[in-house]
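Re: beginner question about structure tokens

> Can someone show what the tokenized structure looks like for a real chain? I only ever see the sequence side.

Sure, here's an example I had lying around. Input first:
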Amino acid sequence: MNDGILGVGATTGGERPDLSALAGALDEAVALGLDFVEIPLLGLDVIAGARPLKARVAAMRQACEARPLRYTIHAAIGLNFMDEPHRLASHYEVLRASLDVAGELGAVHVVVHTGICAAGQPVALDNRYARQREWLARAGDDARERGVTLCVENVWTFDTARYTASPSRLADEIGRIAHPNVCATLDVSHAYLSCAWEGVDFLSEIAALAPYAKHLHIHDSFGRPNDMWTCTVSEQIAFGLGDLHLPPGWGSIPWEAVMEAAVLPQGAILNLELQPRHWGEVAGAVASTRRLAGLARTTPYRDRSSSRDTTLAV
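And the corresponding structure tokens:
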């Protein structure tokens, strides 16, 4: 593996909300030779009313410390700092609780999705971005106190009434936040989907976000909107529709070109994200992810914190 890459991980598959499957999932990760495991808090009952449940977090810590692994966390997908202003404090409280859990586990990264909102006038969108920068910078301070890096992930929408940042716009926002503990998660398939929908160049968008991306999500797709009726997920896969989280090589992402375009920060983590239905392919998918890690180009991460944007949210 490239010396500039910190390691290869995978999101655990088949969790149960009560943590009863966690130990087995971690043992499987050890057997697969993974360096990291990404634990999805979005599927575990460990936070209630924005408060970590101490007994369950302690059980998680005991399971994690017993294995020769390192950890990252995926926070709730519902977190959204482009939501309406009266809900932003609630989003922040849940994110802070997620950072608390990460700190207890010694996790190095916490992944949170970038905001999504209704399409609207440019001035309204600018205000949403300003509020998101303000709250993410505040969360960055909390992350720093816990020894964690917050990694903001690019997402997608196939809905003209909905809006989210392109990878290049997310790169600009991370640069304006300019916080050493607020970086990016480059989800390659999400970028593939959003660029196809928006009609912009995929590899240029990858190149724009990559320098901020200390975390990558690796899974495959075909870049096609899920805009037709199908009866089953197997039919969606047959047509190649939507965010399929396929093993690398099953879709049409040009992975070698991606790794050529993406100059990543030293210490980046590549994390495999498979749908549980594809878990039988995990060994081969881990090997593919390690191969991509070997192709990665890296450079020292430039600390932009001295140029932090001070735009006030309205």
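Each token stands for a local structural state, so reading them left to right follows the chain. The longest strand covers residues 5-11.
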